[in-house]
Amino acid sequence: RARSDERFTVESVVREVGTSGDLPALAILLARDDELAREINVVDIAPGPRRLGLARLLAAAASGDQHLQRVLSFDPEQGRAILETLVDHGEPVDIGTRRRRALRVCQQLGSALGALHDAGLWHGRVARQSVRQIGELTVLTLVDALVQWAEPSGEEPPAGSPADDVAAVLSFCELRDAPEGLVDGRALARWASEQLDSEAEAELAALRERLLSEALERAPAGLSDEGEDGSTAH
User: Fold this and answer.
1) What is the rounded CA–CA span in Å between residue 43 and residue 20?
2) How far is residue 42 CA from its own chain's centroid?
3) Distances from the Cα of 153 to the Cαs of 17, 51, 53, 149, in angstroms?
4) What are 18-43's pLDDT values in tens digits?
5) Hey, which bits of the chain come out as E strands?
């Protein structure tokens, strides 16, 4: 179990993974921050071969953006991190059938993965259960990645790569027309952003064409036949 702390009260165990002596290699708990009066996730990493990889993952995630579960604090020497909890927050993400919606989710997940991929790490479990919709934000949980990195028994990292994360996002968003060569979250987010801009430009052009057509339909008879110099075609 997590080590005692006067600042928070443990409410339940979210996950425990592996063993390290008498302790789980990784313990993730739901707790109540008594100072700030809010729920948090407390992450305790026991000393052992898996601590280094988990510590690297947490350190990288601490520089992540609003689309990745926030690391509120991390003490690598103590092996303890405090995360902003996503338990019972938000809704599962529904991609729906609109391409624009899928591209926006893809862009935000690519952005979430950027901090991990920049450090040469990967999430490993991008799937429906690890993605939450909170207001306008798509947020990727870090808890599932920590579990992934805690499961190998030795010092080697789990199987995977940033490119595997990209493939998982594209599959989740059902985007099958992405080009090859999207090797990490930053590249994925750029591609999705470019696609969103192209779709917006196409929609604007279609709107202008429709408005012009409607204006010509409402014009007085014969006006639509006038040339640019005001002459009328015969």
Assistant:
1) 15
2) 21
3) 10, 11, 12, 10
4) 877 778 889 999 999 888 788 999 99
5) 8-17, 26-33, 38-45, 71-75, 80-84, 91-92, 131-134, 137-140
> 37: which 2 tokens?
């009066």
Backbone angles phi, psi at 20, to 5 degrees: -145, 95
- The CA-atom distances, in angstroms, between 52 and each of 64, 96, 124 are 19, 39, 17
Q: Which amino acid is at 133?
A: Q
Contact yes or no for 50/152 (Cβ under 8 A): yes
Neighbouring residues of 46: CB distance < 8 A, sequence distance ≥ 6? 20, 21, 23, 24, 25, 26, 27, 79
Distances (CA, A) of 23 to 4, 38, 104, 148: 14, 27, 41, 18
Token pair in block for residue 158: 């789990």
Q: Is the pTM of this model over 0.85?
A: no
Instruction: Give the whole-angstrom CA distance, residue 14 versus residue 29.
Output: 5
